């Protein structure tokens, strides 16, 4: 396969790479870091593939200089990483861990010295365990995202981070993919905290949005430069025009997208939520004033996109309606695309990316500028005897999806930049170390980093893009 040409993005469009703390840092109990729900979850037998944990991960905590050098070699404009909340506040609130603060100080300063703009995600799923299970004898059911107190603790943490790093961070992302925190974590139970609590997931979803709103206030008060949120919105299709499939599509739109986009960008809860949640939607956890708080204007929306989803109507899995999990909305996913799949089993359909972006633009007049905060593919990479990693599938994936972004821009969507997921192979949550998303290969025994062919391709794309931008400016 010969490498595809470079998709053309408009002059000034920015390129970056992304990671997240628990997936790369390791040093899980070093320098005062407290445990997070992902430490607990990954250490619970049977929760992750092969019992993998983030104890060491890519050992980025000790190797961040080498990783910043890799970013510099890549030529990116920006780097998106997340701060580990329990590294800054080991108990979630209260005492601040100076060594934790210092670590991100060094990272940010090294990035700036390399000419790379830092974009910080405050919450990439690693809730301090102390907030999940309060030590005052509280049970899990009384903590975490089930309670509003956690949203208030998040605001405190946002304040600590903004106060310390606000002068140097270009872009702040409050939450990463709250869909996963709420529904994969509290209904499906595939992610930490591994709960299957039906209605509890809806409460968690709401408190995550409240946390976002409170953090935006803190960030604004601290003079943060750009503030936004990252969502994994889905481009959904119905399997057929049958009324039951169209109804399934409506319910899936609520679950996957509108739970977030309606309060954030339209100041209301989703129109079809009653039909979707079967009467579970409303509760005292929703307070007057919440919609105003959640819907405060943002500087950007971060969009993570990997694959489209097609849905069909399906019987509910559980008989007791009170136990119907919030994700059990009578919908099943199918894959009618007939395209190649990545090793995650995700179909590769770049045109769906354009449709998602143009659809958002058409639907929400208040949509802020968009940054693609994650996009990439997991492939069966291996080091070859020539010491390289040949990953033409990933290059093809990235080229196709960047061209899809370019199409959305041509169609009028204000997309400002793109962060590839991921800089490094890393801990892929419940999938452990089985899925490699990096532009850089990581040998998990030696922790040696080897740039893959896609790293060199991406560098070439950035160089070509910059030359064109400079030409246009002349
Ligand atoms: C997203 C997560 C990210 C990574 C990619 C593959 O859902 O935000 O951490 O795991 O998927």
Give the distinct bound molecules. Answer: beta-D-fucopyranose
* CATH-defined topology: TIM Barrel
Give the integer mean of the pLDDT values. Answer: 95
Q: Evaluate the radius of gyration.
A: 21 Å
CATH superfamily: Glycosidases
Low-confidence stretches are: none
Give the helices and strands as they follow along the chain: EHHHEHHEHHEHHEEHHHEEEHEHEEEH
Name the CATH architecture.
Alpha-Beta Barrel
The total of helices stands at 15
- In terms of DSSP E residues, the strand content is 5-15%
The structural class is alpha/beta
Give the number of DSSP strands. Answer: 13
Tell me the span between the first and last alpha carbons.
36 Å
Describe this structure in words.
The protein is an alpha/beta fold. It has helices at about 20-25, 35-40, 60-75, 85-90, 100-115, 130, 150-165, 180-190, 200-220, 245-265, 275, 290-295, 350-365, 390-410, 455-474; strands at about 15-20, 80, 115-125, 170-175, 225-230, 235-240, 300-305, 310-315, 330-335, 370-375, 415-420, 440, 450. The chain has an eight-stranded parallel barrel with strand order 1-2-3-4-5-7-10-11, surrounded by four helices. A three-stranded mixed β-sheet has the order 6-8-9. Strand 12 and strand 13 form a beta hairpin. Helix 7 packs parallel to helix 9 and helix 8 packs antiparallel against helix 9. The chain starts with 13 loop residues before the first strand and ends with a helix. Beta-D-fucopyranose (FCB) binds near residues 20, 176, 304 and 437.
